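Q: What structure does this chain adopt?
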Amino acid sequence: MPGLLLRTLRGENADRRPLWLMRQAGRYLPEYRALRADKGGFLALVYDSAAAAEITLQPIRRFGFDGAILFSDILIVPHAMGQALEFLVGEGPRLSPRLADSQLAALHAVPERLTPIYETVAKVRAALPADKTLLGFAGSPWTVATYMVAGEGSRDQYETRAMAYADRRGFQAIIDAIVRVTTEYLCGQIAAGAEAVQLFDSWSGSLAPAEFERWVIAPNAAIVSAVKARYPHVPIIGFPKGAGEKLPAYARETGVDAIGIDETIDPLWAARELPANMPVQGNLDPLLLLAGGSELERQTLRVLEAFAGRPHVFNLGHGIGQFTPIEHVEALLAVVRGWRA
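A:
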């Protein structure tokens, strides 16, 4: 029988809630920090399939989460499209050449950069208990494009938003190229053993409503349709962070099977406004998990109760912080696992 997480993403409303955490494989774990100190930098770990598989499995061994999320990065896609990628200590990722200064046609694709990721997926699936769901992922086109255009992350995505207004045709070509590569990338992960996949749109909240329709909903719908044509039974989770009141339209129009919601969304509003019986994922504030205490328990129960009437995957509203105490994660697990619908 499929694991609880996979069944929930397929629409089963069980009395117990499956649990996984975004960025659960990473810096808050001492075993991750030890492996990184031994192996080297972040990108080296991502492309070392044995190390990446070990990192993916670490939180499953420690906490027994219902899902294992592939250890990788959304910028693997632009790297495969031909941009150079490096992670600078204390500064984050850098892509070059920036598409604000260069043409998309000047990039020379390196699709073999995706191969180690598929190898990681296969290694994890071979080692993962049968009742645990393996989650693959990719960045959504808008968010990936913001990095490709600016060469780095930014608070307001100014350069990318300006390009999208000033050069509709040129920016559409960038989005279309990302859609094509991302579709193949997700299908490659599924072929290697991923049982569900998530599309991360970390910067979707920066767009005006009409731009959101064009650069978030439409490209994600294209990816979902193409992946579903090949793998109709594999659930796809859409996570448009910052979407706010545009969230119901995203849920209806993209074709995703489940919707991830961030911590700024009132769970009672989401339960009321999202399509009936659609699986929801989220949405505890990561800072609550960092803070711990009685408020962590209270707010965890509030999220659980809000979504009691529909399939629900418990998760954070974004990634777990690197300074989150292990005992706070254990406390969260106890609350979620002790709750029944």
